[in-house]
Structure to design on (456 residues):
């Protein structure tokens, strides 16, 4: 799950970089007029959607990391309980 | 409304759009290719639902970027066309960069289109602009020049393609509404060369109203004149050193004045439509018997041209030779120009009118 989280983060950063590049390119244009207004509006919407997608990937990555930590904690707790049970069983066998 | 465009920047942006598109497609492919580990059911459900959806979203955005890149390339082309020649934009480097962007499958068609555009602009410069530069846009000769240009241009470019030179910049209806406006004599293209005159005539129209009747007068006074005034002002300020006109600025001025100048001549055709129609509808036979009587009327040059058809044909065919210098010869001009009206209208009835209506109606 951590590996997947890392993959998703890398993909999100790649997509975010591409989106930022588009916004920078559009923002630096000396382009005025109705078509320019439409272009800038479209790129603005594009950027918002793209950042939304990248942000969602980051959120999923965080979710996976949190979930991995929870699974690890659960596994550790289970291991601890199993050890306790094993210890208890061993003590009962001795007695 | 001022339109500015820098073709180099637009092409650069288009390239970056396409590079980003590739990155987005790559990201989408990576999302599809990830191996899903064993996960808690709630997390698995969320991941399983989200990843394909985000992948599709990224693919869709990549597609949009491709469209935007194509649009930018097209607009860079219009800007190149608008800035070619008279506006001192070096077209060669830009055109090479532009052509290099086209894929092999579309390259030839796009190159041809570019050449058509450049030829259209060149014809406009040689056949129409000389009249405007002489401040004679109210003359029938100017109308004739315009119609000759229309006729010549129709050989390799449909009216809709020609209209695209202007229309492609922004919403066509809005652009034409704002850009459309006749001149009072010297406004328009003349304003580019003699910006002070452009300023004066535009200001006059704004203050005293247009000489045109009806809705066209209102468009002229409240739409075209302020726009032309601004454009001529920019050109004038640049001419006297107040503003160092950059290529985008030059293009902006050029596009605006081209549209205004075109409209002016279009209106002249409209205003003379009855005379032109009579010259056409009347037919050669009637003209043969009566043309002497009409030499003094606005259609006189056209009728006189019937006597000089061979010379006119030569003038039309040679096209590029029918240049500024030859236009200065009044007698030759009268005949050639008039011939253009008659020849153009009779060889392609309705084409000129349709073209003008599409362009400026």
């Amino acid at each position: 799950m951590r590996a997947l989280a890392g993959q998703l983060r890398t993909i999100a950063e790649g997509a975010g970089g591409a989106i930022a590049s588009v916004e920078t390119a559009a923002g630096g244009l000396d382009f005025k007029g109705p078509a320019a207004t439409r272009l800038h509006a479209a790129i603005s919407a594009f950027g918002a959607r793209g950042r939304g997608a990248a942000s969602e990937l980051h959120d999923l990555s965080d979710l996976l990391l949190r979930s991995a930590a929870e699974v690890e904690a659960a596994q550790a707790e289970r291991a601890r309980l199993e050890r306790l049970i094993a210890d208890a069983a061993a003590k009962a066998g001795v007695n | 409304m001022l339109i500015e465009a820098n073709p180099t920047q637009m092409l650069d942006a288009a390239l970056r759009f396409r590079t980003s598109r590739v990155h987005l497609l790559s990201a989408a492919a990576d999302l599809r290719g990830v191996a899903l580990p064993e996960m808690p059911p709630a997390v698995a459900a969320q991941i399983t639902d989200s990843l394909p959806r985000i992948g599709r979203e990224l693919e869709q955005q990549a597609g949009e970027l491709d469209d935007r890149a194509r649009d930018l390339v097209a607009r860079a082309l219009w800007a190149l066309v608008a800035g070619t020649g008279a506006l001192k934009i070096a077209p060669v480097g830009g055109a090479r960069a532009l052509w290099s962007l086209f894929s092999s499958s579309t390259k030839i068609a796009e190159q041809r289109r570019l050449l058509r555009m450049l030829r259209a602009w060149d014809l406009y410069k040689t056949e129409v602009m000389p009249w405007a530069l002489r401040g004679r846009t109210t003359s029938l000769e100017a109308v004739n020049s315009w119609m000759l240009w229309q006729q010549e241009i129709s050989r390799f470019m449909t009216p809709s393609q020609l209209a695209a030179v202007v229309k492609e910049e922004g919403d066509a209806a809005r652009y034409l509404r704002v850009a459309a406006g006749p001149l009072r004599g010297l406004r328009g293209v003349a304003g580019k060369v003699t910006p002070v005159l452009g300023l004066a005539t535009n200001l006059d129209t704004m203050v005293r109203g247009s000489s045109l009747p009806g809705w066209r007068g209102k468009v002229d006074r409240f739409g075209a004149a302020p726009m032309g005034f601004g454009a001529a002002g920019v050109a004038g300020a640049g001419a006297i050193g107040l503003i160092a006109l950059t290529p985008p600025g030059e293009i902006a001025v050029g596009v605006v004045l081209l549209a205004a100048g075109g409209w002016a001549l279009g209106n002249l055709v409209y205003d003379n439509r009855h005379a032109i129609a009579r010259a056409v509808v009347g037919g050669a036979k009637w003209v043969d018997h009566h043309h002497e009587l009409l030499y003094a009327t606005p259609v006189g040059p056209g009728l006189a041209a019937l006597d000089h058809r061979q010379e006119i044909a030569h003038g039309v065919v040679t096209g590029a030779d029918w240049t500024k210098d030859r236009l200065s010869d009044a007698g030759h001009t009268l005949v050639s120009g008039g011939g253009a009206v008659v020849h153009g209208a009779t060889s392609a009835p309705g084409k000129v009118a349709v073209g003008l209506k599409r362009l400026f109606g």
Remarks:
- Helices of chain A lie at 2-27, 34-94.
- The CA atoms of residues 33 and 61 of chain A lie 41 Å apart.
- The radius of gyration of chain A is 25 Å.
- Residues 34-94 of chain A form the longest helix (61 residues).
